[in-house]
Amino acid sequence: MLGDLIELGTLAIGVWAFVDALMRATPLYTAADKLTKPAWLGITGGAAAVALLTDTVGIFGLVALVASIVYLVDVRPALRAVQRGNPW
């Protein structure tokens, strides 16, 4: 039961990160001094695929979860700041 919830949560986070990366404009990534859009699409898409196809509690599932979280807590806020026109 708990394992199923963890797997579902990991998959949801992976898909969220992938869809968000897909929707952002390509120039934002270089303007925010991050990896390119294709690189982040590969990372987040791979993470979502791993979360879907493997056991999330294993090492590959943990790596997939960490990759998705890195996008959501580091890259996404930087892209949003560039898109909004950060006053700093």
Could you explain how this protein is built, in words?
The radius of gyration is 14 Å and the shape is elongated. The N and C termini lie far apart (46 Å). The chain has helices at 2-23, 26-31, 37-53, 59-84. The protein has one domain. 28% of the residues are buried. Helices cover 81% and strands 0% of the residues. The protein has 4 helices and no strands. It has 88 residues and is mainly α. α1 runs antiparallel to α3 (37-53) and α1 (2-23) runs parallel beside α4. The longest helix has 26 residues, at 59-84.
Kindly state the percentage of residues in helix.
over 70%
Distance between the termini: 46 Å
Proportion of residues in extended strands: under 5%
Structural domain count:
1
How many strands, what sense, and barrel or not for the largest sheet? none
Report the structural category.
mainly alpha
* Inertia-based shape: elongated
Number of strands: 0
Gist of the model:
This protein is an all-alpha fold and 88 residues long.
How would the blueprint of this fold be written?
Blueprint: H1 2-23, H2 26-31, H3 37-53, H4 59-84
